[in-house]
Write a structure and sequence with these properties.
Layout: E1 5-7, E2 10-12, E3 20-23, E4 28-32, H1 58-71, E5 77-80, H2 88-95, E6 104-108, H3 118-127, E7 132-138, E8 160-165, H4 175-183, E9 190-193, H5 211-219, E10 221-227, E11 231-238, E12 241-248, E13 253-257, E14 264-268, E15 270-273, E16 279-280, H6 290-293, E17 297-299, E18 304-308, H7 310-324
Parallel strand pairs: 3-14, 3-17, 4-5, 4-15, 5-6, 6-7, 7-8, 8-9, 9-12
Antiparallel strand pairs: 1-2, 10-11, 10-18, 11-12, 13-14, 15-16
Length: 330
C-alpha cells in the first residue's frame, strides 16, 4: 500500500494519475451544505471552510448530486456541514435531488431556534421518513455544540444515532452518567469517536495504548471488532444499549496495487460535494476526475468482522441454525 504525502494535518495523493476503484455501489458521497453552524468544536476541520462563503450555491450542489446519481445510483449520501438542519428549505431542495435508490444520512446537532422549531424538525423527518436512513446527532461529553432537548429524539420519525467525539483529555468520570442519559431513550445507540485528525495507519487498530478503548472495556461488554483499510469499529454492549468506538483515517483514498492484475488503483472510500458544488476525490483540495470515475472498477466492500466475542459467535451460530429450520405456524 502506497503512503500518501503528508501536507500539514492532511495528506495528498502523489502527482500520478491512477484508475479508480471503489466498493460495490460506489464511494460514499458527502455533501457539505452551503450554510454554517453556530458551533466551534475544536476537532472540526470543516469550520475554516465556512469562513468565506463566496461562491456557495445550493443550485450547483444539486447539479452535482444529480451527476453522482447517474454515476453511482446505489451509493450512500451523507449531508454534513455546517449544520444541515439550520435551513430546512434548502436541505429539502437538496434531498429531493437524491434518488430513492440511495441510503441517506444526516450529521447534525438538531439545533432548535426561533427560525427552526422542534415542530419544524419533527415535521421534516415525518415528510422524509422514507428517504432518511439515519440522523447522526452530535452530543459530546464536553459541551461544544448547541443542544436541543433530549426529548426531541423520541419524537423524530427516523432512526437516529448519538455521535460523541472523545477529544484529548475527556472527562472519564462522565462516561457512565453520559451512557445512563441516553440509555433512557428508546432506540438510542452511541458511537464514540476518536479524533480522526490524530488517526494514522499505525494507530488505527492499536489496542494496547488506546485509552478510550481501555475505558470502554472497563465499563461495557466487548462484542466484536469490524474494520477495513480505512476505518474500524470496536463494538460494545452497555446494559442492552449498543455502543461503537469508531476510528477512521483523515483521508479517504488508498493507493494499492492489485496483486492479480498488477494494476495500481486509487481506491476511493469518500467523494465530497463541496459548498460551491465542486466534486472532490478526497478530503483535501484535489478534484475528482469525473470522466475516469465513469470507468471505476468495483470490488466487494472490505469492511468485515475481524473479531467477535465468544457469546456473539454462539448467538450467530444459533441464529444460523434456526434459519435452516422449516417454518412452523405458531
Amino acid at each position: 500500500m502506497e503512503k500518501k504525502k503528508k501536507i500539514g494535518s492532511w495528506t495528498e495523493l502523489p502527482p500520478v494519475s491512477y484508475p479508480y476503484k471503489t466498493r460495490e455501489g460506489g464511494a460514499t458521497v458527502t455533501v457539505f451544505v452551503p450554510y454554517d453552524c453556530k458551533n466551534n468544536c475544536p476537532f472540526c476541520v470543516n469550520k475554516e471552510e465556512y469562513a468565506c462563503m463566496d461562491g456557495f450555491s445550493a443550485d450547483k450542489i444539486c447539479a452535482s448530486i444529480e451527476k453522482m446519481n447517474k454515476l453511482t445510483p446505489y451509493c450512500d449520501f451523507v449531508f454534513t456541514g455546517g449544520e444541515p438542519f439550520a435551513n430546512l428549505e434548502t436541505l429539502q431542495k437538496m434531498l429531493d435531488r437524491v434518488a430513492n435508490t440511495h441510503k441517506v444520512f444526516i450529521n447534525t446537532t438538531l439545533p432548535v431556534s426561533q427560525y427552526v422549531t422542534e415542530e419544524d424538525i419533527i415535521a421534516f423527518t415525518e415528510k422524509n421518513k422514507d428517504k432518511i436512513t439515519c440522523i447522526n446527532v452530535s452530543r459530546h461529553m464536553q459541551h461544544y455544540v448547541q443542544e436541543s432537548n433530549d426529548e426531541l429524539l423520541t419524537k423524530i420519525a427516523v432512526p437516529f444515532r448519538i455521535n460523541c467525539v472523545l477529544y484529548k483529555h475527556y472527562p472519564k468520570e462522565g462516561i457512565i452518567p453520559y451512557l445512563e442519559r441516553f440509555r433512557k431513550i428508546s432506540g438510542a445507540t452511541i458511537q464514540f469517536r476518536f479524533d480522526y485528525t490524530a488517526t494514522t495507519p499505525e494507530n488505527l487498530y492499536e489496542e494496547a495504548t488506546d485509552q478510550i478503548l481501555q475505558d470502554l472495556n472497563r465499563l461495557a461488554t466487548f462484542t466484536g471488532l469490524d474494520g477495513c483499510r480505512m476505518r474500524c469499529g470496536f463494538h460494545f454492549d452497555y446494559k442492552g444499549m449498543e455502543l461503537t468506538y469508531h476510528k477512521t483515517l483523515p483521508y479517504s483514498t488508498v493507493i494499492e496495487k492489485d496483486p492479480k492484475t498488477g494494476v495500481t488503483y486509487a481506491i476511493l472510500y469518500d467523494i465530497l460535494i463541496k459548498q460551491t458544488g465542486s466534486i472532490h476525490g478526497d478530503w483535501d483540495s484535489h478534484l475528482l476526475d469525473l470522466e475516469a470515475y465513469k470507468h471505476v472498477v468495483f470490488e466487494p466492500y472490505d469492511l468485515k468482522w475481524l473479531k467477535k466475542a465468544e457469546q456473539e459467535e454462539k448467538k450467530d451460530q444459533e441464529e444460523a441454525a434456526f434459519a435452516k429450520e422449516p417454518c412452523v405456524a405458531f
